[in-house]
UniProtKB/TrEMBL annotation:
Residue spans crossing the bilayer: none
Keyword annotations of the record: DNA-binding, Transcription, Transcription regulation
Stated name of the protein: TetR/AcrR family transcriptional regulator
DNA-binding region positions on the chain: 28-47
Domain HTH tetR-type, first and last residues per copy: 5-65
Top-level taxon of origin: Bacteria
Signal peptide: none
Gene source species: Streptomyces xiangluensis
Pfam families: TetR_C_33, TetR_N
Length: 189
């Protein structure tokens, strides 16, 4: 019998909240059952297992990030778009560290194809059109931006920049300036 009020969507959102509180790696069906004060078995009518739960949280996080990025990019171009896009990721990671970690979760090919991951790539490529990059340079630039944003945000979340001057915001701004300059003057192969 299905417990009243429990749905896959409600469990996914609760799992995302749990991830933000305790870390994405700690999210399991058992932990979620404790949160709802129900038996683990009662959740299996909505979720297959912890892998399914984590996949659902990852898909939710990718969708939330894509929606925020699309809103932030509206009407922007060039450096302004680059900064807005980067700040969405940084702000989301700060507000939702567990969900941000979920957005990095490796999805199976079918789930990845159905995810908002494609929207992220499209938005990144749209930003890069303002820098007049063609293939394969555009793909290299997409990978570079993702690596820089994720690397910086991950180090910052781990406290890597909290014990030294200058403030990490100053470094972030300088990095975005450097990325903009690099993209405007992309080196020839």
């Amino acid at each position: 019998m299905t417990r009243v009020g429990l749905t896959a969507e409600r469990l996914t959102r609760a799992g995302a909240e749990l991830a933000d509180e305790v870390g994405f790696d700690q999210v399991t069906v058992s932990a979620l059952a404790r949160r709802f004060d129900v038996k683990v078995a009662s959740l299996y009518s909505h979720l297959k297992n912890s892998q399914d739960l984590k996949t659902r949280i990852a898909l939710l996080a990718l969708e939330e990030l894509a929606d925020r990025a699309a809103d932030a990019l509206a009407g922007r171009a060039g450096k302004d778009a680059l900064g807005a896009f980067a700040n969405v990721y940084r702000d989301y990671a700060r507000e939702h560290p567990g969900r941000y970690a979920a957005a990095q979760f490796r999805l199976d090919p079918q789930a990845a194809a159905a995810s908002a991951g494609g929207r992220h790539a499209q938005m990144t490529r749209a930003i890069l059109r303002g820098y007049d990059l063609t293939e394969p340079d555009q793909t290299h630039a997409v990978r570079m931006l993702g690596s820089v944003f994720h690397g910086y945000v991950s180090l910052e979340l781990a406290g890597g920049f909290s014990h030294s001057a200058p403030d990490s915001q100053e470094s972030w701004s300088r990095i975005l300036d450097a990325l903009d300059a690099l993209l405007r003057n992309w080196p020839a192969p």
